[in-house]
Design goal:
Number of strands of chain A: 8
Order of helices and strands of chain A: HEHEHEHHEEEHEHEH
Distance between the termini of chain B: 14 Å
Shape of chain A: globular
Structural class of chain A: alpha/beta
Strand content of chain B: 15-25%
Strand order of the largest sheet of chain B: 2-1-3-4-6-5
Order of helices and strands of chain B: HEHEHEHEHHEHE
Structural class of chain B: alpha/beta
Oligomer: heterodimer
Largest sheet of chain A: 6 strands, parallel
Low-confidence stretches of chain A: none
Radius of gyration of chain A: 15 Å
Largest interface: A-B, 37 and 31 residues
Mean pLDDT of chain A: 95
Low-confidence stretches of chain B: none
Mean pLDDT of chain B: 92
Distance between the termini of chain A: 43 Å
Shape of chain B: globular
Helix content of chain A: 40-55%
């Protein structure tokens, strides 16, 4: 499964949920699949995706925003592996990490990560997250649907092919604009629920 | 009650006054009373540990995107870890965030190695565009409370991370950090 195919499934099932995407090619490809206000693109915040997803999940806990879909990569997660410990410690129910694992730093020359030899799903499970695995678009759709139907924290470990989608445009928007678009979308849902 | 103890209590009081939704911490002996003081608060603030400082910036920095606000309690030697997260996330996305950190590079610091990272911290932060305010033995608990509270309001009003560096040492009076 190519990353862009996985992002197509995630974008479709997460159309009404906050979706946080890790930096570089993953954010660019998600924006190419669908560019919507519910997407938060972390343009260059290396290793921060699962932490940001955890913060948003803490803020959304107990609200009608049932899940925060957090699209991380193996390289990004390995830069901040402690994020899994904090996610497991805090255990915010809306947290749903979709880990797109291709075993390489695809955005920086397909250099191998440690995930080529270790199982990040097992690490997440050891930290207390509910973990499932997927290797095809059908398995991703089924696994993500199941997790969206139950409180988390979840991590769906998705094996994808190395490489980036050729011809995907750069994301050149100001992060302040992208962040404010996302904030406006999310707070409207949280404030609407509070009324 | 010694001055350092009263100053720490003043910081706790200011953080409570700011209505922080969440406080993440990476501990230090000097700020242990602040962390436990917040844990003993009225239940409005949730206080939790993180493994490294950049992780705290990710978790707490994300809160304003959901209309919430938080703070980080840490040592200043952790700014080396946190700088990329602070600049590429909190600063780049204009996210308000209050950081209160005890200093390990000033007067009275016993660890000769830790000065290497802690002394340049104010210059590193200012060069990165992050406002820094300092507290030390020259002022009392009332000022410490006021500066922390104002720094939190400053973060919200200016939509950016703001740092308060707290120097607890006062060796002349025999007060340990």
């Amino acid at each position: 499964m190519r990353r862009i195919d996985a992002l197509g499934v995630i974008s479709e099932l997460g159309a009404d949920l906050p979706v946080v995407a890790t930096c570089a090619a993953t954010s660019r490809e998600l924006a190419a699949v669908a560019d919507r206000p519910n997407h938060l693109y972390l343009l260059d915040s290396m290793g921060l995706t699962t932490s940001v997803g955890t913060g948003l999940a803490l803020a959304c806990a107990g609200s009608p925003v049932s899940h925060v879909i957090t699209v991380d990569g193996d390289g990004s997660l390995l830069m901040n592996l402690g994020a899994l410990a904090t996610a497991g410690f805090l255990a915010p129910a809306p947290l749903l990490v979709v880990l797109l694992d291709n075993g390489v730093y695809a955005s920086t020359g397909n250099i191998p990560t440690q995930a080529a030899r270790i199982d990040l799903g097992a690490v997440a499970a050891a930290c207390g997250l509910n973990v499932a695995a997927a290797g095809t678009p059908e398995e991703l759709r089924a696994g993500l649907s199941a997790m969206l139907g139950a409180p988390g924290p979840h991590l769906l470990h998705v094996r994808i092919e190395p490489g980036n989608e050729p011809g995907t445009p750069l994301l050149l928007d100001d992060p302040v604009v992208l962040g404010d678009r996302f904030r406006t979308w999310l707070t409207a849902r949280l404030e609407g629920a509070a009324r | 009650m010694s001055l350092p103890v009263r100053r720490r209590a003043a910081v706790v009081s200011a953080l409570r006054e700011l209505d922080c939704d969440f406080v993440a911490y990476v501990p230090s002996n000097s700020i242990a009373d602040i962390i436990t003081g917040l844990e003993d608060a009225d239940g409005r603030t949730t206080v939790f540990p993180v493994s490294r400082e950049e992780e705290a910036v990710g978790v707490v920095g994300a809160l304003p995107l959901a209309g919430r606000f938080g703070a980080i309690v840490m040592q200043d030697n952790g700014f080396g870890n946190a700088l990329t997260a602070l600049t590429t996330f909190a600063l780049a996305y204009h996210l308000p965030l209050l950081i209160v950190a005890n200093t390990r590079g000033g007067l009275g610091e016993y660890n000769s190695m830790i000065h290497s990272v802690s002394e340049p911290v104010p210059a590193l932060l200012r060069a990165s565009g992050i406002p820094v305010f300092g507290l030390d033995r020259r002022t009392g608990p009332e000022d410490w409370h006021g500066v922390v509270a104002e720094a939190g309001r400053h973060a919200r009003m200016t939509h950016r991370p703001v740092v308060v560096l707290m120097e607890f040492f006062d060796t002349a009076k025999g007060d340990a950090a």
